[in-house]
Amino acid sequence: MWPFICQFIEKLFRETIEPAVRGANNHLSTFSFTKIDIGNQPLRINGVKVYTENVDKRQIILDLQISFVGNCEIDLEIKRYFCRAGVKSIQIHGTMRVILEPLIGDMPLIGALSLFFLRKPLLEINWTGLTNLLDVPGLNGLSDTIILDIISNYLVLPNRITVPLVSEVQIAQLRFPIPKGVLRIHFIEAQDLEGKDTYLKGIVKGKSDPYGIIRVGNQIFQSKVIKENLNPKWNEVYEALVYEHPGQELEIELFDEDPDKDDFLGSLMIDLIEVEKERLLDEWFTLDEVSKGKLHLKLEWLTLMPTAENLDKVLTSIRADKDQANDGLSSALLILYLDSARNLPVSHILRDAL
């Protein structure tokens, strides 16, 4: 299959990624891929998990532990600035979800295939000419790390690649599914965190300036920093859309803010299936990967209703908590799907050329 997967990837680069990059910035309007060769070393699937509970009977959900270490050759150029750069090798390690749906009674038995990562994969890219690329106006504020984050997030939920296998499948519903629910995260407080700041060349152990980074898929929130406190109280609220479960998790990392490099204070991973089952969790969680520290969270699972009959009740309940979130708590979700456009005006650049 690998040569055909490579053909698909090349098509994806040229027909989807290239136009997206050109449209992202005026300075990139002449961006193009001059060569795309993914190499002859296929990706490895190190493990497969198939879900049999809490899934629709007209779909099959697979989680693939994938590992790709490939010597590829991808060359790109920005003609306007005579800039050339490329990629010599790529490494990707992570959990890719594959959804086969809808299952149908005729060959090929599967209506469409959807691919995405549940969380940001480990991605390493060996560049050539990256300095040239970062010298382009509009890109000089970027870095290698920021570019990797942009590429990684392109692969992570709610972004997905959907391949129709039969003509009558409703591709829009598969590419842009309605979220399964909303997770309301009350990021309350922590206790007994490690003191990372030191004085007198490390003789005196001080306190920390803790803050948290909260992730659900590619949705990322960052709390405020509490100065010099090992028992910080944040009392902040965030809301994240949950598109896939089982499988999606709430990821939290705590750090001590420092002028040079922030110190790690612990992490937490919570399976959202448990939150959905309980509907409301208000607990102290022991932090992982550190010797001490606890985090107090209140997690609410909110189900989406197809009608507005309970809207007044919801509005009344959130008014009582309106000061908790920076931009207020949500009462409803508006989903817009942009289908197509017609009779658009011709660009003045193109008109002048004609």
Automatic annotation (TrEMBL):
One of its GO terms (biological process) is lipid transport. Residues 165-285 form the C2 domain. One of its GO terms (molecular function) is phosphatidylethanolamine binding. The keyword Hydrolase does not apply. It is a peripheral membrane protein; Multi-pass membrane protein. GO terms for cellular component: endoplasmic reticulum membrane; plasma membrane. Keywords: Calcium, Cell membrane, Endoplasmic reticulum, Lipid transport, Lipid-binding, Membrane, Metal-binding, Repeat, Transmembrane, Transmembrane helix, Transport. Residues 1-166 form the SMP-LTD domain. It is found in: Cell membrane; Endoplasmic reticulum membrane. This is ESYT2 protein. It comes from Hemiprocne comata. The lineage of its organism: Eukaryota, Metazoa, Chordata, Craniata, Vertebrata. The gene is Esyt2_1.
